[in-house]
Specification:
Layout: H1 2-27, E1 41-45, E2 51-58, E3 61-68, E4 71-74, H2 84-95, E5 96-99, E6 101-104, E7 120-126, E8 131-139, E9 145-150, E10 156-160, H3 161-167, H4 171-174, E11 189-194, E12 200-204, H5 210-214, E13 220-224, E14 230-231, H6 234-245, E15 251-255, E16 270-275, E17 280-288, E18 294-299, E19 304-309, H7 320-323, E20 336-343, E21 346-357, E22 367-374, E23 377-379, H8 381-392, E24 398-399, E25 410-416, E26 423-430, E27 435-440, E28 443-449, H9 450-465
Antiparallel strand pairs: 1-5, 2-3, 2-7, 3-4, 6-10, 7-8, 8-9, 9-10, 11-12, 11-16, 12-13, 13-14, 15-19, 16-17, 17-18, 18-19, 20-21, 20-25, 21-22, 22-23, 24-28, 25-26, 26-27, 27-28
Amino acid sequence: MKKRQRNAIALVVALALLAGVYLYITNRPKAEPEDDSDEQIEISKFDKDSIVKMVLESAEGTLTLEKADDKWTVDYSRPVELKETAVDDIAYSFSSLYAERMIDENPEDLSVYGLDKPAVKATAYLKDGTVRVLYLGNKTPAGNTYYLMAEGDPKVYTVWMNHGEHFQYKLADIREKKLTEIDTIELTYLKIEGKNIRTIEIESRPDQTEEEAQFNIGIWKMVQPYSNPRSVSTDKFEKVLDAISALSIEDIIEDDPADLSKYGLDDPAFELIVKDKENTLHLYFGDETEDGEDVYFKTANDNIVYTMRKNKTKFLETKPFEIVEKFAYIVNIDDVDKIIVEGRGKTHVITLTRETKKAEKEDEEDEVITTYKVDGEEVEEKPFKKYYQSLIGLLADAENDRQLEEQPEVKTTFFLNKGSVREVHVNYTPYDNDFYAVFVDGKSEFVISRQQVYSMLDDLEALIRGDLVKEE
């Protein structure tokens, strides 16, 4: 009996709960339908090309742009070239402006948004006489939007950061920032000069003289700072050319400054001259900016002070030795008739005697037969050429920073069969325990390891003995 009573009570409670749920479901307030539309909040929308004048007013000054014959000009004391894409950015923000959000329908305190005293008043004048005025406030706490109001509309909106940036453009932001373009593939001349560096001057040699070819002067010839022209390492020089191609203006600082000394341009730290077949880029570099990120510079043909990223100017500190070919002395074997090598108390005379064997047939060329001798004894061609590579392959290890009297321990003299110079003396004078100073015709600009010179002498002795490894 008691069990049936408990079951009955439970059934009544369950029915009561179900009835309650039913009543709630049938009588609850209906939810507002979700807005699935992606409709944007339009602030300003019209044809961008209908704008004839734009004025941006801020505490830093007023920028006025006017269109004449479909070309934008700026009210300024001197003619300036404008970057059309930057001007178009401003026009775009006037003509196609949508809000990210509507923040306040009827604000009581505009100072909360920086709109009591707007950062910028932006005004666009249209062909039909319509005037559109926008007020830019603070950047929002999110950091990617700005507060903005339109004249005639009490609401406060947020707009994406690019619009805020466009309305804050200054003249420097919309001026064209282009340097004269140099085609480094067609480079004809380069000069880098500075206060604390050795001057580098390089000329291209597309058409080599006979003498330049004789001394293996390649497509680039370094004429400064060394006493004799030297070939330039193409691989190393490419890094300099790449840096020149990357030069660009970071910012425009001042037109026609009365005092260049405040930028270090009265006495520039560096001068750069670069030429291709048609154009010349001539720049002067001054001091670093206060934050150390940029360097002041100007061109030689105007009086405008610019900045450039400091890291783009590192190549100006290039040392000549870093890009020069480092052969102590190199000459084409076909231009050599005799070589005298003196060292370790011995003197060896090397001769190259050539005979021309006439071609037997018209379609054949004459054959030049060379006989190689050391101290009057004939040696085979392949071992001799192996030694010759050792002789002309001596590479300088560093620049000579001392004034030394030429007192050589090892001497080499080359007798040539063409060119204006027919006898060249390349001598090796002690620099310290590890290096020789290399003297070429009485002048020393480089040092070379003693070990290299000793190896060359060892190879000559091996050639004389007949056990120099033959070329593969």
